[in-house]
Amino acid sequence: MEPSGGRTLRVALLGCGTVGSQVFRLLGEQAADLAARVGARLQVAGVAVRDPAGRARVAGVPGELATTDAMGLVTRPDVDIVVEMIGGIEPARSLLLAAMRTGKSVVTANKALLGADGAAMHAAAREHGADLFYEAAVAGAIPLLRPLRESLAGDAVRRVLGIVNGTTNYILDRMDSSGAEFGDALKEAQALGYAEADPTADVAGLDAAAKAAILASLAFHTRVSAGDVYRQGITAVTAADIASARVLGCVVKLLAICERNDGGISVRVHPAMISRDHPLASVRGAYNAVFVEAESAGRLMFYGAGAGGGPTASAVLGDLVVVARNRVAGIRGPDAPSYAELPVLPMSDAMTRYHVALDVADRPGVLAPVAEAFARHGVSIQAVRQEGRGDEAYLVIVTHTARESALAATVADLSAMESVRAVDSVLRVEGEAGE
Ligand code: NDP
Ligand code: HSE
Predict the structure, then answer these.
(1) 107, 229, 228: which is closest to 165 by C-alpha?
(2) What is the CB < 6 Å shell around ligand 2?
């Protein structure tokens, strides 16, 4: 008797690009092992692409398997599992909904879709008794969603904090190591293939916000969509910010932060300074790392390749094996319930520390009203540093933990002061070194 028990599950692949081509390759190369692990042979029923003569051919997809009729493939009665690696909202959403409606199990790498419309996708999975897995959607190869969904299902997650976008981490890392400005580091990332020709989703924080929404939804059993996430990208981070961080013993990282507070949850994506002693500071290049803090488990750290065809295909295949095993067993995998329905708190309620850089007139009596503006809004100053620049001075103020709304009011006051020539930058300071 074959380890596959003589059974075959037919798999529709949607997309054969960076990720899809690697999934196709591994399904062929590892066919025997996968069959033994699943208890059924996984056979590619078809590969949907836009241009069958393009990347699908390069990936070695036989002409008879490649199709431009993705909907026809997804709804074929002989297909058991649909793996979506197209990306974006449409047609991916319609294809996956049709797949679940016709009794298929679904695996996807699509963070944009899950971040925007996770609630509808999960509702459809529940309604049709379908499996819906998307480990590859957040942090590429790193097993992170299954630990949140299953391993920590008996715990209470308090915080998820991490670097979930490789492109921006590469850019910030280059700015730190070479002193480059953002634009030059971006060009370098594009030349090396880390950043896409249109890098907007990465540098504007949209990609990280979608991932933060997925993480918060699973961590806090609450539906959070990308639109609920406070988002600030890295385009305004300057070489001066990086240099200032260095003086303070910090690096700048684009962080995704999901926190549970008394009143609800806070989900945000923004650049922040963290101490060079913090484990996230040593996450270099295009790598990702995520801290999860749970009541009983304490602090856990997940680290690895957050992108790339091979690493992402590993996560896709892991999900594929899980849903295939479920089909063999005639069961559905664990759901991702959103029973808690915690409110998502406005950014104005967020509590963190701040690094405020000002251009001020270098003359007696300037510091006192600046300090007074902070005091007026209850923002406590932790450290002050000044560099002279002719008749101007570069003044850096680092605060203790303060409410975002109080800091915003302080900055508004500072901007209106005659002696403050410019508020150069406001960066949040996150994480304790020992975390
Ligand atoms: P690519 O752009 O490299 O590939 C997309 C594939 O989808 C191509 O084969 C393309 O066809 C096909 N496609 C596009 N539109 C359609 C359509 N309307 N009908 C049928 N096929 C279509 O994307 P990636 O492989 O990089 O990304 C795929 C998914 O994985 C996305 O959701 C992405 O966010 C996610 N992801 C990607 C990671 C990465 O490192 N690349 C990491 C983690 C997740 P054709 O070949 O003909 O152009
Ligand atoms: N553009 C994403 C990144 C790909 O740079 O992390 C992985 O999701």
Answers:
(1) 229
(2) 140, 165-167, 202, 207, 306-307
